[in-house]
Fold this protein.
Amino acid sequence: MKKLVFATNNKHKLAEVRAILKDTYQILSLEDINCHEDIPETADNLEDNARQKAHYIYEHYHVDCFADDSGLEVKVLGGAPGVYSARFAALEGTGKAHDSKANTNRLLRELKDKSDRSAQFRTIICLYLNGQEILFEGIVKGKINQQEQGSAGFGYDPVFIPSGYNKTFAELGEDIKNTISHRALATKKLVNYLKSQLC
């Protein structure tokens, strides 16, 4: 069975992809290859951040791999927070990086008087396979709720209502989210490509 490294420390994402590819690829974690350093994420867009992480693993560990980056893009905020989604509050000094509550609070403040609350979640996956780079994109459109609702999920899930639903990701729960989310859609494209390479 072919081996492929997923450049993430997120155990939930790792388990999800392993379950999908269990019969075709052996998915290794960063821990499996003894990668414990902080992989750089210094680009100003999702595509280049995903590229940066995938290339880092390929260049330092010489293994086929893939990496992802995701962001929430709000129309009336010009696409912000985007690539800075995890650091949105930290950028204005109202929270630390990866502080979901502080990030969500800033987002709701920014949208307080805005009538257009349309937004989208976007994921980019960069696959580095046999020396070739391929990008996969997943997008789920929706809107930002007036307040937080639901307790499942993480990040902006309590305020994001996907199109076609009247509940937030945090209310819908992981089973539905993992079917319709930006990450699920990008992962499905990755999986279809990987399976096609085995035919």
Helices lie at 11-21, 46-61, 100-110, 169-172, 174-180, 182-196. The chain has six helices and seven strands. Residues 43 and 80 are 15 Å apart (CA to CA). The two ends are 14 Å apart (CA to CA).
